[in-house]
Amino acid sequence: MNPDGLSDVPVPELLGRYAAILQELRRRDVVRTQNAPLGDYAEYLAARVYQGELAANSAKSYDLLAADGQRIQVKARTVGPGTQAGTIFSVFRSFDFDVAVLITFDSSTYGLRWAREVPAAEIETASRYSSHVNGNRLLITTGAQLGTDVTPRFSAALAESPDPPAGGPAS
Asked: pTM for the complete prediction?
């Protein structure tokens, strides 16, 4: 038996647990969609760090409006021992934002690895256009070198309990 205790669980039950977890994360206002939770989780953390307001899901070019008025694009990726050097963040299709926050999480624990705040112009210069995806691709290894390290700010936000009181409504 695997130490995770899930190896004997049938696939439909695993998927049901995943759906229930996503539903609970939505109830807590940690994620906003039924997609894989990483992007929503990163946006949620960034909104806490920048004391911002999340943009509507349909908003183009940015994910949140910070308390200081900056338009912030959030890009997140999980990385681990098997992550290849050519791995990229999701594609940038425009640069109509003030700064991007690039965040990496450990692929097995979702623990924060690093976070960088990078001006849009620097992202545009460092990324490469790909007609195949109709947007600019930024390597994780490149992103790790750009902008300003804001990992301590994200670590502090994670240290504060984001969870609502047990049995209480999400705020």
From this structure: 0.83
- List of domains in the chain: 36-159 (3.40.210.10)
Question: Smallest Cα–Cα separation from 95: which of 75, 69, 79?
Answer: 75
Residue 23 in 3-state DSSP?
helix
Instruction: Please enumerate in sequence order all residues whose Cβ is within 8 A of that of 126, keeping only pairs 6 or more positions apart, or say none.
Output: 118, 138, 142, 143, 146
pLDDT in tens, 67-86: 999 999 999 999 988 888 89
Residue whose tokens read 């209480």: 168
Q: How far apart are CA 64 and CA 44, in angstroms?
A: 9
Backbone angles phi, psi at 20, to 5 degrees: -65, -40
